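Task: complex structure prediction.
Instruction: return structure tokens for all chains below.
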Amino acid sequence: MAFILLIFFSATLSAQNSEPVEMADLFYREGKIYLVIAIVSIVFGGMALYLFLMDRKITRIEKKINDKYV
Amino acid sequence: MKNWWKILGVLLVLYSIIGGFLIPVPAVNRVSESIRNLYFHVPMWFAMIVLATISVIYSVIALSKSSEDADIKSSQSASAAIPFALIGLITGSIWAKFTWGNFWTNDPKLNGVAASLLIYLAYFVLRSSIADEQKKARISSIYNIFAYVMMIVFILIIPRFVDSLHPGNGGNMAFGKYDLDNNMRTVFYPACIGWILMGVWFTEIRVRTEKLKRKYLYGND
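Output:
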């Protein structure tokens, strides 16, 4: 009976990956992730701002051309 | 304010950047923290497919109504889809180097995307080879429809039938291999919507610029 139980438990254990997956826990604990977030946000935010300025420039050209050709 | 959706797109992407790095992710073997690439690599493809779909819909409209406006929207949305495809390929390639060991593998989805990209680039070559605007619109719209069908077959249908390393193949589209947990969904879905809105914004700017160009060159006709 004990032998059957032992086989049963060892079968469930073998289905698991026993080595822990290495994540960047130390990096996060040191708070360095906020630097990464800040940089990526600034890069993207800067590009979004540029896009917005280009959009506005086109709007002004559209107004000008519509006045001229309408 | 009629540009609310543009600001929403920017905010959603910004949220996906912040949440993408802060919100905890499941610890998956070999992929580790790079699973966060999901928030940036995959939305590129969703945006590309949405833009290609917009393009083919306007192609059909351009054919049925002989509409120059629809042709402009069709060609410019296809143009806007290309950078998403390129960035998707580059980010996927770098991710593959880290997780699969190679920048490129003989994988059906990768090859399918490369083939679809070439098919759409041929669409632009076709357009530039025809001088007359109406003929250009008609012929390239027909080609666009075929290009779209081929793309759907290559990247959405065939990969499902073939074994591959690529997450999502062999199971459902929702990246089953990575166990997309509920935490990741809270970042992933807004990221997709945000980048789709950004792609539509790119398209809108291209459409407006093209219309201005035509008005300037041909006058108000």
